[in-house]
Design goal:
2 copies of one chain form a homodimer.
Chain A: E1 2-11, H1 15-32, E2 35-41, H2 46-52, H3 58-65, E3 69-74, H4 90-100, E4 105-111, H5 124-127, E5 131-137, E6 147-153, E7 163-173, H6 174-189, E8 194-199, H7 205-221, E9 226-231, H8 232-241, E10 248-251, H9 253-267, E11 274-278, E12 283-287, H10 304-316, H11 321-336, H12 357-366
The complex binds 3-isopropylmalic acid (2 copies).
Chain lengths: 368, 368
């Protein structure tokens, strides 16, 4: 019997509620596939700040490193919102663990469940067949470059009055671009064989380097994959215009942050989308949505994105494709039977089919 | 009789064809409102590179500075595409003139013409009532910060092999943020009184400065305007989810580039959207779409965004609101009568109502 150690990071808001359902599903899968999952809980984000003063305590990093995979729920909330550059912020926990574990590849699959096709604000014929994988570089760019604030700089204020100034740095090395490009091409080979590389090469030097390296990697080792370049502003348009045309979309960290959320919204059901962050060691899995502080603690949050992040964990970290397929099938069946949490219900959902977090987790388990 | 000097910058691709229709409309308006428009043509973009080797020749800048307003069509095309950081690129002409004329405010109205409501890929009930003004900071941020490329840096390549490295700098001063914030609040007062300020304050230092200054300006002088902060990734979602909720959206240069194109695509008819770039002196007006090199020279391009950029010129530079209203009414009537260029036609458009660039310009003039 295989045994895997999983580090659980519930984080903030609805995090603890939804991660419990992820664990429920893991346990059910373990029983069916004769695999043992051992769990170690650790603190991250606002929850960690409240207890330790830091968003990513050393103990959490150690627990993550000692595990075979990390399951995260969500971090952040108004309680910790601040623009004071010296105050700890929940997001630093997330950014810190990505950097410390070297999770340079963020995979965000964007797919539509048939039962939820009507949730999109786009016309049905436009979202029909949407199935793309956003490959976002996750440990470089503006997120991790040098940044600083200068107070009371002469001439930074209005009319030369004293004022402040700040900068962030967007930096990329050939190495960082090359490895994410390889990931995108490898993934495209297992899909429809097409990569759209997104940049702003008509303005940014990092984008011109990006474009050159992506093409070199392509020409040297992946000439069988179709490669197209698209400017980031044009991509923001085409995602709405012809979303079904995209297969694999690869881009740098900040563009990826914006475009992956845009693409997620195209489905109309953000509560259904999971993500995987991969590096050369332990990987991390999390829902694409946030911590939803407004509905935290009420037992009504949608756990399906968390459950689908477990699906990705089984697929990418444990090579358990059958078990992963089981989860996807179970989720699909539950939706086809009409079960909905509040965020994905619509005018046609009968009141007795609107369920809470735990019940939704139970329904998925029952279908495994 | 008033006389205004207008600097015409046709640029590349369809530029010369559509700007001719803008001039046609200006002349008709001039005759009706007893105003003389004098024109000076100048080179910009690829057209300027071909003749002078530079995307923004000194003579062009002088012509722009000597004018009362600048009418630009579009720049760029595959002919001048390159990732060589030392080669001249058409876009440098556009960025150069924005910087040289101090055009720090970019206004991009996003509205739906009733006759074209079906062009959107979004559901009709979602785009119904969309009417927002994107206020994009245009002379700061990543577009104009220090950037550099390093060749053959040790350890920048794979496995420590030699490779390259590049960076761009996102920089903002209090002064730059303050003046664009003021513009946004002033505009909101003349509209529905709501400003959405977009940043990435959970990651970027420039965004934290942005948020602080926007709130200071608001609290000091515009407390009557409703102000909300929205993270850029969330904004990319909400623009698709509830576009009609936005009134004025203010943001920094790169976020504005991406979000204004996304918002434009929500209308489904990019060929209808104009923009104004304002500073403390001469202003510049241009369509939101690009140079469409694939259809250049065929007389089929849609001139309406160019014509609507003339509308903005009359409104913002010449205080000719009646004439501006006339143009908008004329365009609306032409569309209501069913006339379409190829880009905005649909399955229901009768073949004899699909018209070319010149004919569309003539139709607008006939309705003035
Ligand atoms: C919380 C935030 C720092 C994070 C990011 O910007 O990467 C989030 O938006 C995401 O996409 O995972
Ligand atoms: C052509 C390009 C440099 C320009 C920009 O990025 O500002 C364009 O996309 C625009 O939005 O006007």
């Amino acid at each position: 019997m295989n045994t895997y150690k999983i580090c659980l990071l519930p984080g903030d808001g609805i995090g603890p509620e939804i991660i419990a359902e992820g664990v429920k599903v893991l346990n059910a899968v373990g029983a069916k596939y004769d695999t043992a999952f051992e769990y170690a809980d650790a603190l991250i984000g606002g929850a960690a700040i409240d207890v330790t003063g830091e968003p990513l305590p050393q103990a959490t990093l150690e627990a993550a490193r000692a595990s075979d995979a990390v399951l995260l729920a969500a971090v952040g909330g108004p309680k910790w919102d601040t623009t004071d550059p010296n105050a700890p912020r929940p997001e630093q926990g997330l950014l810190g663990i990505r950097k410390e574990l070297g999770l340079y590849t963020n995979l965000r699959p964007v797919q539509i469940f048939n039962a939820l096709a009507d949730a999109s604000t786009l016309r049905p014929e436009i979202v029909d067949g949407v199935d793309m994988m956003i490959v976002r570089e996750l440990t470089g760019g503006l997120y991790f470059g040098r940044r600083e604030r200068f107070y009371d700089e002469p001439a930074a204020g209005v009319d030369g009055a004293p004022g402040q100034r700040a900068y962030d740095t967007l930096e990329y090395s050939e190495y960082e671009i090359e490895r994410i490009a390889r990931q995108a091409f490898e993934i495209a080979r297992k899909r429809r064989g097409k990569v759209t590389s997104v940049d702003k090469a008509n303005v940014l030097e990092t984008s011109r380097l990006w474009r050159e390296i992506v093409h070199r990697v392509h020409d040297e080792a992946y000439a069988d994959v179709q490669l197209e370049d698209l400017l980031v502003d044009n991509t923001a348009m085409q995602l709405i215009n012809r979303p079904a045309d995209f297969d694999v979309v690869v881009t740098e960290n900040m563009f990826g942050d914006i475009l992956s959320d845009e693409a997620a919204q195209i489905t109309g059901s953000l509560g259904m989308l999971a993500s995987a962050s991969l590096g050369d060691g332990v990987a991390l899995y999390e829902p694409s949505h946030g911590s939803a502080p407004d509905i935290a603690g009420r037992g009504i949050a949608n756990p399906l994105a968390q459950i689908l992040s477990v699906e990705m964990m089984l697929r990418y970290s444990f090579d358990m494709a059958d078990a992963a397929d089981d989860i996807r099938r179970a989720v699909t069946e539950v939706l086809d039977e009409g079960w909905r949490t509040g965020d994905i219900k619509d005018a046609e959902t009968p009141a007795d089919h609107v369920v809470g977090t735990e019940r939704m987790g139970d329904l998925v388990v029952a279908h495994l």
